[in-house]
Amino acid sequence: MVSNAQFFRKATEAEKSEYIEVTGKKGDSILNVFSSKLAAVQQKYTKAFRPFDTFGARMDFEAKIREKTGDSSTMSQSADNFKFNVDLESYGDASKFNYMGSVETIADKLLDGIRQPSVIGQSYDFKGKSRGNGITIYVPKDKVPAMDKWVKDNFETKTEEVVKEVKKEVKTKEAK
């Protein structure tokens, strides 16, 4: 039976002379460079309470790597073959998401020795259009009005229709 274990060894001087630097910084891998750029952009969107498709960005990056290295036996060995740019800002574009709704976030707080449920914020649910992955963003109570405005400006919300359906369901339950 063949083991899946991989054995690593230090490269010889002859092998090191044949290395092609593709990251611009010695010792960094393409994945490390991409991951650090992705983390910086993702943090920007997280601080702004906006959806960002990290999963989609990673999947597209991996597809580009596979495409570039797919037939490496016939590919010329130059650093230019491995350099490509991924527009990470596009993965935070509101047009790439569907707004699924929001719910209040409730947590127990200790008031006068009694645990009381209280609203601490709101969670907004989005779904990526390209891969269908879900993204939930928690927004603290003081930032909810700004987020509601952003959602209203960027997405078609069916609030009135949903309210009518809920009222209809409540009436039918009360009638039973």
Give the secondary structure arrangement, pairings included.
Elements: H1 13-17, H2 30-47, H3 54-69, E1 97-111, E2 114-128, E3 134-140, H4 144-154, H5 159-175
Antiparallel strand pairs: 1-2, 2-3
Describe the structure.
This protein is an alpha+beta fold and 176 residues long. The protein has two domains: 16-92, no CATH class; 97-175, no CATH class. Helices cover 38% and strands 21% of the residues. A three-stranded antiparallel beta sheet has the order 1-2-3, covered by helices on one side. The longest helix is centred in the N-terminal third of the chain and has 18 residues, at 30-47.
Keywords:
176 residues; alpha+beta; 2 domains; 3-stranded antiparallel β-sheet; 5 helices; 3 strands; elongated
Task: Give a quick precis of the structure.
The chain is an alpha+beta fold. The chain is built from five helices and three strands.
State the low-pLDDT regions, or none: none
Taking all residues together, what is the mean pLDDT?
Answer: 80
Question: How many β-strands, per DSSP?
Answer: 3
State which percent range the strand residues make up.
15-25%
Largest sheet: 3 strands, antiparallel
Please bin the fraction of helical residues. 25-40%
Distance between the terminal alpha carbons, to the nearest Å? 66 Å
The radius of gyration over CA amounts to: 25 Å
- List the total number of helices: 5
Walk across the major sheet and give the strand order: 1-2-3
Overall SS class: alpha+beta
- Write the element-wise H/E pattern from the N-terminal end onward: HHHEEEHH
Shape annotation = elongated
Question: How many domains comprise the coordinates?
Answer: 2
